[in-house]
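Record 1 of the preview.
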Amino acid sequence: MNNLVPKESRLEIKFITHEMNYPLVANWIKLNKENFKKRYSDRIVNNIYFDSFDYEAFKDNIYGSSSRLKIRYRWYSHFKDQKSGNLEFKFKRNIFGWKKRYKIPNLKIDSKLKLNHLKKVLKQNLSGYDQLIFESNCEPKIINQYKREYYENYNQKFRITIDTSHNIYDQRFKKKVNLTNKTLIQKYIVVEFKFHRNNIDLSKSMLKSLPFRISRNSKYINSIRSVSGI
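->
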């Protein structure tokens, strides 16, 4: 893995709480002195998370490895409306994170799609070292889906996303994509603060007024625990 942190890397600070606390979160954003406003319309986000056969990405996160990688295929919209998406390599080096994206054209995710074919198509759109990385971490583990709200402050230095209505679909031990059998999970929301590494000092004063404690959270980790009972 590349251990060099690019200049465009950013920090992502998250907290998770029960969905009954959504009004409290929304009110905090509305009254914040940074004057947050809606940046985009709400969207449905879908991710297929990949890992190695023996869950190296999962273990790196659990054990707090300083260099981590997650691979996911992301698209927006309801399942039936899906047309194209991006394969993302999400890197983490200590507290800093960045992404590398590959546009994947003409890939329809539906219940007829064989997972082996999915892996083949994604691999064909990669080259060089990234193809080797994917080969070692190409096992589809889960699909998660949620609704995302986007907010940005007045000078566009800080972004907040709120993720609600989470669904998880187990892909392990399947031959075709599973879009129908959901895993039973608790109802929760994830709030995430995103900002450039140069604004870390400015973020501290803003986050002091948070109504909840900042917590380490990973949708992938939460999803694997939900489907496996770990």
